[in-house]
Amino acid sequence: MKMKRKAHTSSGLSRAAALWLALLATVCCASGPVAWPAAAQSSEPTEYQVKAAFLFNFTKFVDWPESVFADAHAPIVLGIVGEDPFDGDLGQIVAGQMVKGRAISIRKYRFGEDLRHCQILFVGSSEQMHIPNILLSVQGASILTVSDVDQFADSGGVMQFVVEQSRVHFIVNWDAAMRAHLEISAKLLALARVINRTESRGVN
Amino acid sequence: MHFFHNLSIRRKLTLIITVITCVAILLACAAFLSFDVHTFRQSKLRDLTMLAEVLGSNSTAAMTFTDPSVASEVLRAASANEHILAARVYRSDGQPFATYLRPSEAAGFSFPGVESSGSRFERDRLLVFRPIVLDGRTIGTVFLASDLEELSQLLRLYLALFGGIVATLSAGAFFLAERMQRTISGPILSLARTTKIVTTGKDYSIRVPRSSGDEIGELIEGFNGMLAEIQRRDADLQRAHGELELRVQERTEELRAEIAERKQAEVEMKQAKEAAEQASRAKSEFLANMSHEIRTPLNGVMGMTDLALDTELSHEQREYLETVKLSADSLLIVINDILDFSKIEAGKVDLDASDFDLRECLEGILKTVALRADEKGLELLCEIAPEVPDIVRADANRLGQVIVNLVGNAIKFTHEGEVALKVEVEAEEGKERILHFTVSDTGIGVPAEKLQMIFDPFTQADTSTTRKYGGTGLGLTISARLAGMMGGRIWVESQEGRGTRFHFTVRVGSSSRTVEIGRIAPPEILQGVKVLVVDDNRTNQRILTGMLSRWGMRSNAVEGGEEALVELQAAHQMEKPYALVVTDMHMPNMDGFALVERIREKPELSTATIMMLTSAGHRGDALRCRELGVAAYLLKPIRQSELREAIARVLGAGEQKGAIPLVTRFSLHDAREPDHVLHLLVAEDNPVNQLLATRLLEKRGHRVVTAINGREALEVLTHRKFDLVFMDVQMPEMDGFEATAAIRELEKGTGNHQIVIALTAHAMKGDRDRCLAEGMDDYLSKPIRPQELDKLLEKYLALRTKPVNAPEVLKPTC
Known about the structure:
- The complex is a heterodimer.
- Chain A is an alpha/beta fold.
- Chain A folds into 2 domains: 1-34; 47-201, 3-Layer(aba) Sandwich (Rossmann fold).
- Chain A is built from 7 helices and 10 strands.
- Chain A has helices at 2-8, 14-27, 47-61, 89-94, 131-137, 174-179, 186-191; strands at residues 62-63, 76-81, 98-99, 102-109, 120-123, 144-147, 159-164, 167-173, 183-184, 193-195.
- In chain A, strand 7 and strand 8 (167-173) form a beta hairpin.
- In chain A, helix 2 runs parallel beside helix 3.
- The relative contact order of chain A is 0.12.
- Chain B is an alpha/beta fold.
- In chain B, 52% of the residues lie in helices and 18% in strands.
- In chain B, the strands form 4 sheets. In chain B, strands 6, 7, 8, 9, 10, 11 and 12 form a 7-stranded mixed sheet that branches. A 6-stranded parallel sheet of chain B has the order 14-13-15-16-17-18, with helices on both faces.
- In chain B, helix 2 runs antiparallel to helix 4, helix 7 crosses helix 11 (474-485) and helix 13 (561-573) runs parallel beside helix 14 (592-601).
- The two termini of chain B are 91 Å apart.
- The model of chain B is unreliable at 515-522, 655-660, 669-674 and 801-814 (pLDDT under 50).
- The interface between A and B is medium-sized, with 21 and 23 residues.
């Protein structure tokens, strides 16, 4: 169905189509490793489209303590603080999706607001300066903090996107995840670069 | 299977046990093997499926985040299992995502098409597909291929193991079977050996030792029991045999004694029988002698009386002589009756059955009595039913005797009216027929109270009858006995004063022969021919017209020449002229020749063929007949066959328009004009009888030479040849038999045959046979009766020109 829609949407919907492709590439494992050139054509997924898909997929490999949800049907809240780099792509990806029986809702924050009511918190690059404060404000809460700001993981963030050879990779701060009581699947860890691992486990 | 049947029991048992054991072991091994293989496959499949699950699960993140290297890393973990040939992860769109190949398979492994889920065993590998599920969603498929090297190894191991087990156990089974079957086959073999010894050696005292309590033991016991029984019976048999021999010996002794006794009795019986036969012979001899002694003088009396009657006599003398003749005739009849009766009573009459023409025979018989009937003015009728066969087989003489008796009787007791003989077929039984003869008259009849005893000997209706009609009264008795002998019976019905009806039946055989009369012309030639019979004698008229109608001819009879001429003229005018005229010669007013002359005067009447019948032939008659153009000239009494043959001949000749030679009775028998004269030799010692015979023969125109005994006859015969020799049987010096024997002795090798006719007063049974046995050709009993003599002469006259070899050809006819 989705492929059909793509077929019907032409240049007017080029962005949506590219976003779908990114999602398909990750979720549905489209052809080959997802890569995109800097001057991507409209049909190739952009870097942030890939990152949006990653964010969504993290929900599948991360388990939160039950207590963070109000009830069994409470959605997984994906918060974005600072400037939203996804340009609505994220909203399109999660729309209508259910993970582990929960819907996913997107919530946007401004710095200074209470950030504790989300399960994933993406910190936009606009908030580079406030990162320590933000991390501090969510300390003790079970929140998967993600950012593509350099040194975010080293600074105490749980996950950090890095782009190497045009591919999106991510770094997991094991210690931070443990402190946030997040259970990150070993399978996800197998894909990530893990730092601050206190247990005697080989990195990567 | 044939091979197996011929094996010894020992081999069979061993083979059976071994084969069964091997089969059991093989089945057990096969079951074990198949179970193990199944289990192995199950566990293999389970292991592989589990591994696939693990790999799939471990690949989820790599797939989600599109990291094939990580997936390959995950798959490489499969190399821990050395049997994994290949592993691969497919994306949900079926494209391979990551692959692992066992180094050894790097080149040649071919991946099958992707399947969502499932497993299958291929020839030497196991393939498993499992879906990769993440959060309830299928994101791809993991594929695993494993070799089955373990299974092959397992199979190889098992085969080696089972081979060893089967070989070992079979050998063990064979060895055990070989040992254990002895308990079964041992006794059987021993039994068989003993049986053979008993069979060949016939020694029933041998016993087979019993070794076990099973069925074979019972069998041996039974066999021993049978042997004992046989031994016992053998002994019994021997004993019985001995006893039997003893008894046979005893019995033989007894039989010997018995036979001796019987022989003794037989000898005595034979003696008694001989004595009885001697007595019987003496009685017969006496009877024969008596008959001879009576007949010889009677012959003289009768013959001389006949001769004397032919001479010129005064009326008184003639009357006396005629009385003498009548008395002599009566005496002869009485003697013959008594003789016949005594022979029948003594059971000495044998029937001599032969084929003969019944109609001709009956005509001959009636002809002998016709004269007497005619003299008394009686009508003598004869009616033979058409179904009565022509030729029958019976004793013609005895049948004739009965008929003559009954008809003679009827004539005797009838004063006016008629005597009729009727013959019918009463019944047919296969080839035999029962003929029913009826002789009816219009005579005095028999009183009812006498009817029962009429067939008893020496009875007549009453003594007064005897006085009035004469006779011994034996005729009916003899007839009754003869009828009984011929398979029939006799009975009578009568009304006093109205007539009598005698019935008798006779059983006759049918003959394959057909009637011989009419051979010359087919019957058609006679059919419908118009005949005029001219005869003043009513009986003759009736006889002739009867015969002619029987052959299908249309006949009319007139009493004299005048009436004949009128009838011929009338027929001519009606244009239905007669084709044949049969006329008598001796008739009052106009005799036969005169009639013929009158017919010749009228050419229109001369178209008819004329036949002349005469009762006494005169010299010159034949010549006159020829002159008058008479076609046939025949002597009465004429036989049916002769008449028919003559008519057929003259009519046949007329049709051929050839020259018609005169037909006479002789030309019927041979074509040549015969010479009437026979040269005869009469050997007779009694001068009266010699004279009588000579006169009788000379009167018939024959030349006679006499001899007084056999010796003289032989002497005469050496000088000249005779047509016939009449030989008296009883003669002094050399009797008839001796003389005949001498004649036959002389004839030996010459091919000649002198006809010898016996003259004998022995009217006893067996005389005729004896005469024929002694080499004589025929037989004439004394007193000589002119009729019999005529018959005989006629016979030999007819056959004179033909060589006569076999006497039976000349059997006298009735």
